[in-house]
Every structure is written in structure tokens, then in C-alpha cells.
Write a structure and sequence with these properties.
GO terms for molecular function: Glc3Man9GlcNAc2 oligosaccharide glucosidase activity. One of its GO terms (cellular component) is endoplasmic reticulum membrane. One of its GO terms (biological process) is oligosaccharide metabolic process. By secondary structure, the chain is mainly alpha-helical. It has one domain: Glycosyltransferase. The chain has 18 helices and eleven strands. It has a three-stranded antiparallel sheet, covered by helices on one side. β8 and β9 form a beta hairpin. The longest helix has 28 residues. Bound molecules: (2R)-3-hydroxy-2-(alpha-D-mannopyranosyloxy)propanoic acid. The site of (2R)-3-hydroxy-2-(alpha-D-mannopyranosyloxy)propanoic acid (2M8) has 9 residues, from α2.
Length: 456
């Protein structure tokens, strides 16, 4: 175990990083070899949470970072699908939808030794595995990390191949999500039209009982039943089609090419290329880099709306861009390498009062523009600020912001503000973007893990 964050010497900052580590320690479940997103709300392993968590561990505990990643990939489906939840067999009843609801045995590709969901989440994993290697300090840690790259590389390739082969039927280099939970931004207003278009009679909705509502400050902070009815209905569409992607593509009423998901995929493709390079697989590295560049280019061509100067999701069922400004659109910068016009338009949006305001006076980035009719201060992905979004947008601004003083200034602001907000409020799940007040689950792992990644 490396000493935690040798670069941080200020005692107050050291205490802050130590408290972030305590959150991860508290959420570690030895029997699963993985970390819960939050002890009160999420009793299983979540896919993109795990990748963010591994980024945090990579700075001081290579072993745990690898264990976390391995636990997730042990549950990978035989067709490459990396499930969004790996269920903890000791916590069956405490989360809905639990393992039985997904009926994953209807798929010939389901994993044999794990209970999982049947959907995915944004593919941050190659980025985390590369960080495990890059952040390993001692010779012994580097050796462990090298073994990790060797063993995880083919699994990462299967994961990305699954996305490109199964989720991009029109060969546009953009993959689709087929459930709101796949976006990671569950009840974003961006899905409202698509969800309202799903007309259901009561007998079409599988019977279900939620268990989340009593676990947060106010149940209004969680998604409503209109959302959950459609969330469970879509799961039925999947198992009724035996999780066959071609059949799902033909019959699913929810198919969306999401900016955040594809942007992370593009960036993860670069990480995969770097991993292949480290492993001496030169040809493969070239292939991964080309694939990543194609996705990045497709984001900028198909998902950018020139008049609005914003990146939007594309609804493949309604066949149109969803012109709702969500913070996921700003994450385009994380994966795509954008030209100065596109960068300036994103910087202008960040300076708009609907996001941060001209003097960066808003507390932090709302998940939905504040002038959107679907915006609220405290309801989950309908307005509140999230640390992972601040993290991804900041990184995207720095990556594209060469020579653009405003981009660098906003990037700096996002880190300072995120750290002061977490310092004042604690490692919560999400925050009121105007006041910084904390909401949702407490001791939230990715808020802690990304703090460690930022500080160390
Ligand atoms: C939230 O999503 C889950 C469903 O996957 C839920 O609402 O029950 C989202 O914030 C998602 O991005 C996150 O991965 C998950 C666990 O933190 O919680």
C-alpha cells in the first residue's frame, strides 16, 4: 500500500484526502472484492462507479484497484456485454430491480457464475485500467499493474467489440443506449419525449415494488413512477427478446445515441490503444486509435447542432436530435478533439447563466440547463450537480483548451469549486447546483474516489 498522496503536504488537504479514503474503505465489501457506490442506496457493484472508484484506488492501492476491476469483469457476459450491476448475493432484497427481475437466463450469453443486470453503463473501464498502470509507483506495483493489463486487455477488447458490433447496427461509429440507466443520467429530462411516447396499459407493466424512496431526504429527489413504469417495461422488452440485440433494435421504443456515452467510448478507445501499445501490440493499437477517432468525429458531425452551438443526443426512434441542454452534452469535450468554434460555443454555454454564469457565480454545473422547463434544484439528474460530470468536463476543457484562457479558467474553477463543495458538504451523491447543499446518498464512493484522483 503506497502512502496516501505524497504530493499533498498541507495538513488540511491531507485530512480531506484521508476522509475520502475512509469513504472507500467503509464501502468496500470483502466478500465481493468490490466497493458499493453508497451504503444506504446501492448495495451492489455498479459498472461505471467501479471504474471511477478504481481511479481513486490507483493512487494508493494498486491491489484493490485491480480487485475492483476484476470483480466487475468476472461478471462479463460471453458476448462481451459488461453489466451495469453485479449483484451482491447477500443483498438480494434491498435494491429494486434485483437479480430475478432481469431474467438474464433468457440470453444464451449470460454469465454462468454471476447474477447481473442486462444493461450496460458508460465504458470508463479502459481509462481506469490504464490509470492503474500509470499511477503504479513502486516496481512491485508496476509488475502487478502490468499483469493486470495483460489479463484485462482481451476483456476490454470484447467489451468495446460488443458495443461496436451490437450497438451500432447502422455502422455510424456511434453506439446506442437502450435504457435510461445505461446513460448513467437516469431521469434526465433529455429522455422525457422518448418516454412520453411509450404509451402503456397497466397490464403491459410487469409488477414491481420500489425500495429506494424511503432512503433519501425526500422521495421527490428520486425518479417518479411514470419513469419507473417505463424503466421496468423496457427490461421486459429485453428479456422477451432474449437479450438479442438485433431483435431489440427492431422493437425497442427507446434507442438513443448519447453524447456522454460515446464521448467516454472514444476516450476509452484511446486508452485501449495505449494499453495495446504498452503490451507491444502495435497493430491493435493502431486499430483502437482509428476506431476512437471515428467515434470522436461522428460525435462532432452527427451530434453537434451548429445553430445552438451544443452537443445533443440523437433519438433513433423519433429520428431527431433531442434539443435539451444537459451537462452530458458538455462531456463531448472529454472524448472528441474539437475545433475552436465548437470549443468556444461550449465555453459560451458555460458562461451562460443557465450553466455557470458570466462570472462563474453559479455554484457548479447543473445536470440540466437552468432555463430548461424540466430543470429542478434537487431531483437527481434533473438539475443537481454531480462530481463525475465536473470531473469529465474539466478534463475535456483542459484537453481541448490549449491557448484558450477561458477554457483553462473554467477548468480551474471546476476543480476548486468541487473540492470546496465536498469539503463543506461531505462526499454526497449530488448537490443543489445553486446553493451547493448535499442530496441523495451519503458517503458516495465516486465523489470520494474522484477527489483522490484530483488531489493526488
Ligand atoms: C444511479 O442509477 C441507479 C440505476 O443504475 C439507480 O438510480 O438506482 C445513477 O446515478 C447511476 O449513474 C449510478 O451509476 C448508480 C449508482 O451510483 O445510481
Amino acid at each position: 500500500l503506497a502512502s496516501l498522496c505524497p504530493a499533498v503536504t498541507d495538513p488540511t488537504q491531507q485530512a480531506f484526502v484521508t476522509s475520502a479514503k475512509a469513504v472507500l474503505d467503509g464501502n468496500w465489501v470483502t466478500s465481493m472484492n468490490s466497493t458499493l457506490p453508497s451504503p444506504n442506496l446501492y448495495p451492489h457493484q455498479w459498472s461505471w462507479d467501479s471504474a471511477f472508484i478504481a481511479l481513486g484506488y490507483s493512487h494508493y492501492d494498486t491491489h484493490k484497484a485491480i480487485a475492483e476491476t476484476d470483480a466487475l469483469f468476472r461478471a462479463q457476459w460471453r458476448n462481451g456485454l459488461l453489466p451495469h450491476i453485479v449483484f451482491n448475493p447477500n443483498a438480494d432484497e434491498s435494491y429494486f430491480p434485483g437479480p430475478a427481475f432481469w431474467k438474464i437466463h433468457t440470453s444464451p450469453a449470460h454469465p454462468l457464475n454471476s447474477q447481473t443486470s442486462g444493461i450496460v453503463q458508460p465504458p470508463v473501464h479502459a481509462i481506469a485500467s490504464l490509470a492503474i498502470y500509470n499511477n503504479a509507483k513502486s516496481a512491485q506495483q508496476k509488475k502487478l499493474a502490468m499483469h493486470h493489463l495483460q489479463s484485462v486487455y482481451p476483456k476490454l477488447v470484447n467489451w468495446h467489440n460488443y458495443l461496436y458490433n451490437e450497438r451500432d447496427p447502422l455502422k455510424e461509429n456511434l453506439v446506442y443506449i437502450r435504457h435510461m440507466w445505461e446513460s448513467g443520467m437516469d431521469n434526465s429530462p433529455a429522455w422525457d419525449d422518448a418516454l412520453n411516447a411509450i404509451q402503456l396499459t397497466p397490464d403491459q407493466i410487469p409488477q414491481y415494488t420500489r425500495v429506494d424512496k424511503g432512503k433519501v431526504g425526500s422521495h421527490h429527489e428520486r425518479p417518479n413512477s411514470h419513469f419507473y413504469d417505463r424503466a421496468v417495461y423496457l427490461i421486459k422488452v429485453f428479456y422477451d427478446n432474449s437479450y438479442d440485440e438485433q431483435a431489440i433494435f427492431k422493437s425497442s421504443p427507446f434507442l438513443i445515441q448519447d453524447v456522454l456515452f460515446n464521448s467516454i467510448l472514444a476516450r476509452a478507445g484511446e486508452a485501449l490503444a495505449d494499453i495495446a501499445h504498452i503490451l507491444g501490440k502495435k497493430q491493435a493499437a493502431v486499430h483502437h486509435r482509428e476506431q476512437s477517432a471515428k467515434t470522436a468525429a461522428a460525435i462532432s458531425s452527427k451530434l453537434y447542432h451548429a445553430e445552438d452551438g451544443f452537443y445533443y443526443d440523437y433519438d433513433m426512434v423519433a429520428k431527431k436530435l433531442i434539443r435539451t441542454k444537459i451537462s452530458g452534452g458538455l462531456v463531448a469535450l472529454y472524448g472528441a478533439k474539437v475545433d475552436s468554434t465548437h470549443l468556444n460555443s461550449i465555453v459560451n454555454h458555460l458562461y451562460d447563466p443557465a450553466f455557470l454564469g458570466p462570472d462563474l457565480s453559479s455554484y457548479t454545473i447543473p445536470s440540466v440547463a437552468r432555463d430548461d422547463p424540466g430543470y429542478t434544484n434537487t431531483t437527481y439528474w434533473k438539475g443537481p450537480a454531480w462530481i463525475n460530470i465536473n470531473y469529465l468536463v474539466r478534463d475535456g476543457l483542459l484537453r481541448n483548451g490549449n491557448g484558450n484562457e477561458d477554457a483553462v479558467k473554467i477548468a480551474k474553477f471546476l476543480k476548486t469549486r468541487s473540492m470546496s463543495m465536498l469539503g463543506a458538504a461531505g462526499f454526497y451523491e449530488y448537490f443543489n447546483p445553486i446553493s451547493g447543499s448535499p442530496h441523495g446518498g451519503h458517503q458516495f464512493s465516486w465523489s470520494a474516489a474522484l477527489t483522490i484522483d484530483w488531489m493526488c
